[in-house]
Amino acid sequence: MKIGDVEVGRIGLGTNRLTRTPANIEFVRAAVDAGVRLIDSAHLYSHGESEETIGAALSPFPESVVVASKGGFGGAGRGRPEVLEEELRESLHRLRTDTITLYYLHRVDPETPIEESLGAIKEFQDRGTIRHIGISEAGIEHIERARKVVPIVAVQNAYNLTERRWEDVVDYCAAEGIVFVPFFPLRGDGGVKLSEIARRHRATRRQIMLAWLLHRSPAMLPIPGTLSLEHLRENLAAEKIHLSDADVEALR
Predict the structure, then answer these.
(1) Which one of the listed residues 45, 103, 104, 172 is annotated catalytic?
(2) pTM for the full predicted model
(3) Nearest 5 degrees, angle CA 191-CA 195-CA 196?
(4) Domain residue spans in the chain?
(5) Per-residue pLDDT tens for 164-198?
(6) CATH fold group of domain 2-187+217-226
(7) pLDDT of 188
(8) Distance from C-alpha of 234 to C-alpha of 252, rounded to nearest angstrom
(9) Which pLDDT does position 189 carry in this prediction?
């Protein structure tokens, strides 16, 4: 799977709880050594400490690793160009980089046309400060409007076994060659059937949840968050689990 022009695995790492400690800096380095190729952050995560930790751990970033961030979260007015520009500059500073490989508009601002928000981000892309652009929590209408301003390589929406509001967006992304990045991929409860499938595959329930997502669409790239190297390796191993049609039907 590719994000823009970078080849990545199909399971990344979410960092919304990552704080700047020596242990977490080493964890981020170990995650890359374990095979993680997409590390997802945002301007607001842990009040900026998520980005700071990633910067301390990885700068200068390996070319084989996509570090993604986001800006423009918080409600009306947060998608204004001047707000995005300020957040983007802060993110660059925290990440200790001159270029962010993937940058998302974190939310569509109800008071600012998406064209204006993405126009501001595009200016940074034109300067080479951002390589690729995505959007988060967006429906097809907004994605199509966004694509008239800039190429969109990734869409990040809430999606898991229980939360399936964005089924149409998953299919749209697969058809259009856009990566779909589900956040909160391990939320929800598959009940007894999930436990039975996990036992049959000698896997954990979390691994089956991830395997189901990967089976759902070739565009899918989940980013489960963890601060445990053991759990991270468990998550990555889910890519090797192949669910049967009967398994998938049971989880429907």
Answers:
(1) 45
(2) 0.97
(3) 115
(4) 2-187+217-226
(5) 999 999 999 999 999 999 999 999 888 899 999 99
(6) TIM Barrel (3.20.20)
(7) 84
(8) 24
(9) 83
Buried/exposed 71-106: b ≥16 CB within 10 Å, e otherwise: bbbeeeebbbbebbeebbeebbebbbbebbbbbbbb
Helix (H) or strand (E) holding 57: helix 49-58
Closest CA to 131 of 4, 2, 233, 1: 4
In the annotation, is 104 catalytic?
no
Could you report the per-residue pLDDT of 11-59, keeping only the tens digit for each?
Answer: 999 999 999 999 999 999 999 999 999 999 999 999 999 999 999 999 9
pLDDT digits (tens, 9 = 90+) for 107-166: 999 999 999 999 999 999 999 999 999 999 999 999 999 999 999 999 999 999 999 999
24-33 long-range contacts, CB within 8 A, separation 24+: 24/53, 24/57, 24/227, 25/53, 25/56, 25/57, 26/57, 27/227, 27/229, 28/53, 28/54, 28/57, 28/58, 29/57, 29/58, 30/229, 31/229, 31/232, 32/58, 32/62, 32/65
Residue 229 burial (CB < 10 Å; 0-12/13-18/19+)? middle
Q: Which residues contact 176 (CB under 8 A, 6 or more apart)?
A: none
Count of Cβ atoms closer than 10 Å to residue 203 Cβ: 19
